[in-house]
Amino acid sequence: xxxxxxxxxxxxxxxxxxxxxxxxxxxxxxxxxxxxxxxxxxxxxxxxxxxxxxxxxxxxxxxxxxxxxxxxxxxxxxxxxxxxxxxxxxxxxxxxxxxxxxxxxxxxxxxxxxxxxxxxxxxxxxxxxxxxxxxxxxxxxxxxxxxxxxxxxxxxxxxxxxxxxxxxxxxxxxxxxxxxxxxxxxxxxxxxxxxxxxxxxxxxxxxxxxxxxxxxxxxxxxxxxxxxxxxxxxxxxxxxxxxxxxxxxxxxxxxxxxxxxxxxxxxxxxxxxxxxxxxxxxxxxxx
Length: 287
What we know:
By secondary structure, the protein is an alpha+beta fold. It is built from five helices and twelve strands. It has a four-stranded antiparallel β-sheet with strand order 1-2-12-5. It has a four-stranded mixed β-sheet with strand order 10-9-8-11, with no helix packed on it. It is globular, with a radius of gyration of 20 Å.
């Protein structure tokens, strides 16, 4: 009798652990970015007045696939792109509208997702805020229901008692990539991600994305990977209908200059194979 009870208890425990693991599986790994109130550099970027966490890696095909399976049975928001199933993509779709199912292509789980718009990335962070069992993508940080999208106030979110997910502001992204609080001679900025004045090894113009974290010598002072190379990354900057992009990528003719701190772009939100993103976590619980 005791053995049966013990076995039943273990089974319940295992189910609970599995359920908790499933619930946490969607949350990208983050690293802390401290040293609040740091100054910007000569470019005018990098100053952030609060502590936060940022994605250690770019969001992967596996993470985005989980998002699709949770919210895109119909996919009325075009969160999936058919080219994700082709050469450079990492996610297949099967079934019909209302019953769509998504699977990661072989060998692509740890590679960064591509063919995503800025809006798709913002909706991904909304979903993180609403919980992995939710199907809500239109509110949760970015309000797509109001008719005029208003960006969240990150300084206010940083004061919240719970974790709030978002796309990084350009300053948050820049600080994580280039700022080094332990730099010789005092806190300051490097020219390239990876704590250097020369470009680190990366997969620029390699014609294929790499698994997240492949270039271990290009780690920033805060412990992020791939802020130079792999995917161009969206940030929250917004200019006349265009959005911010930084970092360089594996695609076509990208070169070392794209990783330089002075290089930034304003682009139309579009589904390119080499456009991806990482997330930030804000709030007291994220510190």
